[in-house]
Specification:
- This protein folds into 4 domains: 191 residues, 2-Layer Sandwich (Heat Shock Protein 90); 131 residues, Ribosomal Protein S5, domain 2 (2-Layer Sandwich), CATH 3.30.230; 90 residues, Rossmann fold (3-Layer(aba) Sandwich); 99 residues, Four Helix Bundle (Hemerythrin (Met), subunit A) (Up-down Bundle), CATH 1.20.120.
- Helices cover 38% and strands 21% of the residues.
- The protein contains 19 helices and 22 strands.
- The strands form 5 sheets. Strands 1-6-5-4-7-3-2-8-9 form a 9-stranded mixed sheet, covered by helices on one side.
- The radius of gyration is 36 Å and the shape is elongated.
- Bound molecules: adenosine-5'-diphosphate and magnesium ion (MG).
- Adenosine-5'-diphosphate binds next to helix 2 and helix 3.
Length: 628
């Protein structure tokens, strides 16, 4: 054996590697198996070009545990290395790139851990790494390289028949879990599930039961079926994952089956997009639209990112726009730079293009579903809507496309595009400022009375009940000229769409003053009182919440501010023209009864909007009993 020193500037980077990568140690296996895959691919390419002659049909990569020796071995049948190559690639290339990497990202351990360092990540879990390799080239001999986790190494000859490489890890005391079958199988399933060559992890027993086929004499019991156990290779991976195939060769059932393979627990997806692009970057993948059914606390991190079929991460938030992280599936791109920091990733032009491409594909798919079968699309809307609205709110480019196929649903369960809806309400719901006023409820059940009151006026009421609807409304108001929204409880029905008509007030000034005073006392700090001449048949007292003030409060609550910082601003609108008001408050002599009646009417209005609770509700009931 020869001895030598690996040339490094720092005396010893191994302690650094160990320290920084501790949290994500397990990626060593991904790194070594992907090196084995690379080596195999290189040999396959050479063989195809006729530059390597021999039978290379067995491309299996073996993962082997030897508990007694305390080793974990990764064996490939790939290109192998000559002695010169070992010196060059393992001593210089691998180590220097590892060195650069650690130097660069010392301050951000999470990044290093996330992306790995190639060959040298082996030293995260091993005290000593042994490589036994033989080049595919004619006349090559076996080479053994040993490095015990410090800058010195040994190199010498080794016995070896087959071309390819064994990387033998002498697992260190504090990483013993990597000698456990379950642990390794788990990691292989996570990182290597779709690698292009078979990954074999020992054997497994397959059990079959064979029915007795011979003759059974009368009165005799048929013998139990025979149990036949066979040892078969335990191949971990699916070497030919669906996203690599041509969409033309695939059926719906293939896509659904692949979804089950990815998410065994998941509900079947609604539909999917098969991505395939070669220029200006390489990307393949399948994105599934899950059923979200109104939930927004979405299961994110479902899209898995692969690089040449090697699993990288399921945190794709830097690569796809936020709203698309609601989708499931896989993206595979060798062009997404992995050995870089997050901030770099966001600035990377390739990543930007990929983001743009995926957004466009998703929009195109939705658009075609909408055009091809509107009814089916409407049926899916409860699941799709959250997703589309989320996209419209968060991505300008997506808005421009989605505004053509986003739907609004009204309280009758009818669906409209934005354009159709504007057309529908134009006549009735244009206000004195020439704005189109969309009226909506955030809770059709609770606001039923108000919804009906608005509809009685000939207005259409939209159902915007989901958490995503508040920001969607804001976005629509910004984007769509002249379109504005008010909630059914933001004004009395006649004022939802402000027109120029003033009603005549049937009360004289003194009467108005008396009533205002009585209600101001009854309402106290609960809101401001406004006496208005409304329709005779409109309710005597109504409570409204100014749209703008309410939205401000909601926004502040969303930002986590104290709800009490911004008090609820209720307006108590008293209908001067309702005969009950006159009868109960003016035609009554007794001061105390008048005050009592004002409180009663106020509470009645509160009750109809479910604003009355606790002690107030009890007082109201007592009062009602007395009046009967
Ligand atoms: P990278 O894979 O990014 O090139 P690594 O540190 O993982 O960096 O590996 C360094 C080099 O060592 C590889 O480029 C390759 O030339 C060589 N190498 C590593 N593992 C193997 C292997 N199993 N068979 C052949 N060559 C290998
Ligand atoms: Mg590598």
């Amino acid at each position: 054996m020869q001895k030598g020193n690996i040339s490094v500037q720092t005396e010893n980077i191994f302690p650094i590697i160990k320290k920084f990568l501790y949290s994500d140690q397990e990626i060593f296996l991904r790194e070594l198996v992907s090196n084995a895959t690379d080596a195999t691919s290189k040999l396959v390419t050479l063989a195809r070009k006729g530059e390597a002659k021999g039978d290379y049909s067995d491309r299996t990569i073996d993962i082997m545990i030897d508990k007694e020796a305390g080793t974990l071995t990764i064996r490939d049948r790939g290109i192998g290395m000559t002695e010169e190559e070992v010196k060059k690639y393992l001593n210089q290339v691998a180590l220097s790139s590892a060195q650069d990497f650690v130097d660069k990202y010392q301050d951000d351990a999470s990044i290093i851990g996330h992306f790995g360092l190639g060959f040298y990540s082996a030293f995260m879990v091993a005290d000593k790494v042994e490589v036994v390799t033989k080049s595919y080239q004619d006349g090559s001999t076996g080479v053994r390289w040993i490095c015990a986790g410090d800058p010195s190494y040994e190199i010498g000859e080794a016995e070896r028949d087959m071309q390819g490489t064994d990387v033998i890890l002498h697992i260190s005391e504090d990483s013993k879990q990597y000698l456990e079958e379950d642990e390794i199988e788990g990691l292989l399933l996570k990182y290597c599930r779709f690698l292009p060559y078979p990954i074999r992890f020992g054997t497994k027993t397959e059990t079959e039961y064979k029915e007795f086929e011979g003759e059974v004499a009368e009165g005799e019991e048929k013998p139990e079926p025979e149990k036949i156990e066979t040892e078969v290779d335990n191949v971990i991976n699916n070497t030919d994952p669906l996203w690599k195939k041509s969409p033309a060769d695939l059926t719906d059932e293939d896509y659904k089956a692949f979804y089950r393979e990815l998410y065994p627990m998941g509900e079947p997806p609604m539909f999917w997009i098969h991505l395939n692009i070669d220029y200006p970057f390489h990307l393949t993948g399948i994105l599934y639209f899950p059923k979200v059914s109104g939930k927004l606390e979405l299961q994110r991190n479902k899209i898995q990112l692969y690089s040449n079929q090697v699993y990288v991460t399921d945190n794709v938030s830097d690569i796809v726009p936020e709203f698309l992280t609601l989708l499931h599936g896989v993206i595979d791109s060798p062009d997404i730079p992995l050995n870089v920091s997050r901030s770099y990733l966001q600035a990377d032009t390739n990543v930007k293009k990929i983001t743009g491409y995926i957004t466009k594909k998703v929009a195109e798919k939705l658009s075609s579903l909408f055009k091809e079968d509107r009814q089916a699309y409407e049926e899916k809307w409860p699941d799709l809507g959250v997703f589309v609205k989320y996209g419209m709110v968060s991505e300008e480019k997506f808005y421009d496309r989605a505004s053509k196929f986003a739907l609004l649903e009204n309280t009758e369960g009818k669906f409209f595009t934005i354009e159709e809806y504007c057309e529908r309400i134009k006549e009735q719901q244009t206000d004195k400022y020439e704005r189109l006023v969309g009226i909506y409820t955030a809770d059709a059940t609770r606001q039923h009375t108000l919804v009906e009151a608005a509809r009685d006026r000939g207005y259409d009421v939209l159902k915007l009940e989901h958490a995503i609807d508040a920001p969607t409304i804001q976005t629509l108001e910004q984007k769509e000229d002249k379109l504005t929204f008010v909630r059914v409880d933001s004004a009395t029905p006649d004022q939802l769409v402000q027109k120029d008509e003033e009603k005549e007030n049937l009360l004289d000034e003194t009467q108005q003053e008396t009533i205002t005073k009585l209600f101001t006392d009854a309402v106290g700090t609960g809101g401001t009182v406004e006496l208005k001449p409304l329709d005779v048949q409109d309710a005597p007292v109504q409570i409204v919440r100014n749209e703008f003030m309410r939205r401000m409060k909601e926004m502040q609550m969303m930002q986590g501010m104290d709800a009490n910082m911004f008090p609820d601003s209720y307006q108590v609108v008293v209908n001067a023209n309702n005969p009950i008001v006159k009868e109960r408050l003016l035609d009554v002599e007794d001061e105390a009864t008048r005050a009592e009646n004002a409180t009663y009417l106020y509470q009645l209005a509160q009750l109809s909007q479910q604003l009355l609770t606790g002690a107030d509700l009890k007082a109201f009931i007592d009062r009602s009993m007395k009046m009967m």
